[in-house]
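Researcher: Sequence recovery benchmark, item below. Answer with residues only.
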């Protein structure tokens, strides 16, 4: 799931394959036409699509992975609070920005429903995932 538009599909697919992400759906957003009069969604695209997946697959549990560049931590903690037994962990990759790092860290420090980490590298997330049994 990404907030990226569909025209980046091939690039994202290549990135995910190169970095050995598991296969799964890639849900991207449509680019808006400059004259489009479509009403704005009530929920952000990412939040809406995650809730759709949780609804579509009621017996699956998920790990949410995002970055500190947008509102991923806010969206993911909101969803984890709504679906506490379905979200096994949240990993937020830190983009090199001190203000964002501090804001996300406050969210991480205060959220107790689901394990959440702000990481600088994928390796940190992998080590944590192994320590809680998500990866063998």
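Model:
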């Amino acid at each position: 799931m990404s907030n990226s538009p569909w025209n980046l599909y091939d690039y994202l697919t290549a990135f995910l394959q190169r970095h050995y992400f598991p296969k799964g759906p890639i849900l991207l957003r449509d680019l808006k036409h400059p004259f489009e009069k479509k009403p704005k969604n009530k929920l952000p695209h990412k939040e809406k699509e995650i809730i759709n997946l949780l609804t579509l697959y009621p017996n699956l549990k998920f790990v949410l992975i995002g970055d500190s560049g947008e509102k991923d931590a806010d969206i993911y903690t909101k969803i984890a609070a709504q679906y506490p037994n379905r979200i096994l962990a949240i990993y937020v990759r830190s983009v090199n920005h001190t203000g964002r790092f501090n804001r996300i860290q406050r969210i991480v420090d205060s959220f107790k429903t689901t394990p959440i980490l702000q990481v600088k590298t994928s390796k940190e997330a992998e080590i944590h995932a192994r320590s809680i049994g998500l990866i063998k």
